[in-house]
């Protein structure tokens, strides 16, 4: 071992957490408002004293403890209420990009719910300018590429679907960084087929379909997302593990699952991490990507999600690097960009293992 390696060994922990921290990554399932750090949320809460969101980061940690999925949505919307001006939007987006860059995220598809902001009075062009301004600044200053997914807040119904697809397809409004179209919010009482016309319009406009499904309802919701919404990836897809035919279909057609382990525990979709079905997904040959969903709300970050997946799947450095390459491959980044990041992952891993 060279002197340099000996010194490096003595200084840095060689455990998997250290490897993950430096590993170039891509994140495909992470929400804009859901990524507001405690510092940002408390700063915004201080600007709006009428809000019930705590300003003190300690109290915020308790506030972000959920009894069930409906409670999570209620808390989520109270944070949405803090985003009131285009300046709030730009600050939030830029800071989310900084947090992603700190975790060596080279590329992220950030899910934004524009309906929730325009209906709260933020003018649509100003909203789009704010996110685009932050996206360009992030790429220049952090080297992190951001793309947008616009999603329908399903519980808000077809009015929100119409507004979301208009904002996503009207050339006078849609932002340059928009690549995909999604469907979020509660699944219970929100059947997927009703959104087919809106997804058809989004897909016809060149957007990729990535709805949430199988997070809080059964595998039939995942089938519906595939059949009616022509999903190219599935947000969560947790209950797919209950249907071997669905697992076989996802594997055969290379339809990736955007797995968010800690999210599923925090929203009580899955009881404990050890009971998470990600092992079943891998055993069935399904393409698994690891994501953080709403990291500060769930007391996690992307690196922690990779560490959780490594433990559940008993992975070494090469196994973790493969997970990272899965996400790059499943992304909607152009081929040269994918090749570049995958090559960076390979170089990083080879260098790490050689030390
Ligand atoms: N794990 C998650 N699973 C699912 N969704 C998640 C997850 N994390 C974050 N979201 C986001 O929560 C939003 C929910 C917004 C919503 O339900 C709603 C209902 C009624 C009115 C309004 C409004 O704005 O007026 C909004 C979704 O759009 C989605 O982007
Ligand atoms: Zn989500």
Automatic annotation (TrEMBL):
InterPro entries (alphabetical): A_deaminase_dom, Ado/ade_deaminase, Metal_Hydrolase
EC number: 3.5.4.40
Domain of life, per lineage: Bacteria
Keyword entries, A-Z: Hydrolase, Menaquinone biosynthesis, Metal-binding, Zinc
Residue ranges of domain Adenosine deaminase in the record: 24-347
Pathway: Quinol/quinone metabolism; menaquinone biosynthesis
GO MF term (any one): hydrolase activity, acting on carbon-nitrogen (but not peptide) bonds, in cyclic amidines
Classification via Pfam families: A_deaminase
GO biological process: menaquinone biosynthetic process
Catalyzed reaction equations: 6-amino-6-deoxyfutalosine + H2O + H(+) = futalosine + NH4(+)
Cofactor: Zn(2+)
NCBIfam families attached to this UniProt entry: aden_deam (TIGR01430), PRK09358.3-1 (NF006854)
PANTHER family, alphabetized: ADENINE DEAMINASE
Similarity comment text for this entry: Belongs to the metallo-dependent hydrolases superfamily. Adenosine and AMP deaminases family.
Protein name in the entry: Aminodeoxyfutalosine deaminase
Organism of provenance: Streptomyces dysideae
